[in-house]
Amino acid sequence: MIGADDQRRHALRLENPLSNEAPYMTTTVLAGLLKTAGRNVGLGAGSFGLFETATVTVPSGAGTPILPVDRRPSVEEFAALDAGLPAQPLHLALVGVGEADGSGWWGEGRGGQGYDAVDAVRAVAGSVALEVTALPADLAPWHPGRCAELSIEGDVIGHAGELHPKVCAAYGLPRGSVAAEVDLDVVAARAVHLRRAPSFSTQPVA
Questions:
Q1: Which helix (DSSP H) or strand (DSSP E) does residue 167 occupy?
Q2: 81 close to 64: Cβ distance less than 8 angstroms
Q3: Half-sphere exposure at residue 4, Cβ-oriented, CA atoms within 13 angstroms
Q4: Are 63 and 84 in contact (CB under 8 A)?
């Protein structure tokens, strides 16, 4: 579903991968999370949400030089080495399957919508006092017309929305499943404040 010219297809190949089935450095967290969601559906899970944070690798295109071993590399050679190293931003991906609001004795549930994924990202950004702007976008693996480009103060942080039906079928997910992926490094760089976790006493309750 990802186009041939999509930046996420430009991945670094490992010389000695742990598995021949996965020889490339990942450029997106969402692909692996969709596989995990599909396994959960296959095991009988109906409505659930998953998330994952992990670094991705974005090749710079500069290439990494081979440094000499018979002497200490020069400052320029170290700079060339640093320039060739790929960026590894921290990403957050999430997937929602089935009902967003569960059904029960209180009434029927509500199926997930694309804006649920957008709202989840807004909640993450809101925890550090940031506001997310959502604009219509068209990007795989999301459904055309049901995808949003997310940004903070003009900086694009990622995308969210309803997954394309073909993607849902490929991963064994029900139609209408939603997902999002954002760059947490951009969010952290613009964070207004970080909330400190509360401290708890290690003493037993008296």
A1: helix 165-171
A2: yes
A3: 0
A4: yes
Identity of the amino acid at 65 = P
* 1-14 core/surface letters (b: 16 or more CB in 10 A; e: else): eeeeeeebeebeee
Nearest Cα neighbor of 50 from 171, 143, 136, 150 is 171
Number of C-beta neighbours around residue 35 at 10 A = 12
User: In DSSP terms, which residues pair with 162 in a beta bridge?
Assistant: 178
Other CB atoms within 10 A of residue 121 CB? 24
Alpha-carbon Rg for the chain in angstroms: 21
Say how far apart CA 91 and CA 180 lie, in whole Å.
10
Closest CA to 32 of 22, 46, 45: 22
Q: Read off the pLDDT of residues 65-74 as tens digits, 9 standing for 90 and up.
A: 777 788 888 8
pLDDT digits (tens, 9 = 90+) for 124-178: 999 888 999 999 999 989 998 899 999 999 999 999 999 999 999 999 999 999 9
Distance, first Cα to last Cα, the chain? 59
Q: Which residues pair with 124 in a beta bridge?
A: none
Please tell me the distance from the alpha carbon of residue 160 to that of residue 141, in angstroms, as a whole number: 10
d(CA 116, CA 180): 10
d(CA 130, CA 20): 41
**Cβ neighbours, 10 Å, residue 191:** 14
pTM of the model: 0.79
